[in-house]
Amino acid sequence: MKLDFWQVTHDPLEKVVTLIAKRAVEQGERVLVVAADAQQRSAISAALWQAGPESFLANGEGDAPSAERQPVLLAEEPTAANGASHLILADGTFREVDGFARVFLLFPPDGAPAARAAWRAQDGREGVERAYFAQEDGRWVKKG
Q1: Fewest beta carbons less than 10 Å away: which of 25, 73, 79, 84?
Q2: What is the tens place of the pLDDT at every residue in 81-111?
Q3: Sequence ranges of the domains in the chain
Q4: Superfamily of domain 2-142
Q5: How does residue 137 score in pLDDT terms, banded at 50, 70 and 90?
């Protein structure tokens, strides 16, 4: 599993989620976005629908009818009714999960201590490839 830590410092969280989800969907992957707060999920959903005239990202709530058909699901817990291979932890809270090829932990600067603890907790874990990304001059740069 690839485990990416993204420290969100400049762009709105919804924009970052949209960027990651768009790339994944373009590669034929399905995505699950987890955020405990319903208002945050709603804001992310609106941003996904407005990703662009030719590139909006259809999405729905994980507990809605026909959730399994959605390329992008939003949920309170990391249960992928759509068979997602990519998980975006949008609320900054790390959760131990299995069954995903790639997991993105998005966190604000004040969430860095918890993110560092989650990073350290992965030390020596077989099959986990970690990376850290930060924003520099409006671009995402892999730092480690």
Answers
A1: 79
A2: 999 999 999 999 999 999 999 999 999 999 9
A3: 2-142
A4: DNA polymerase III subunit chi (3.40.50.10110)
A5: confident
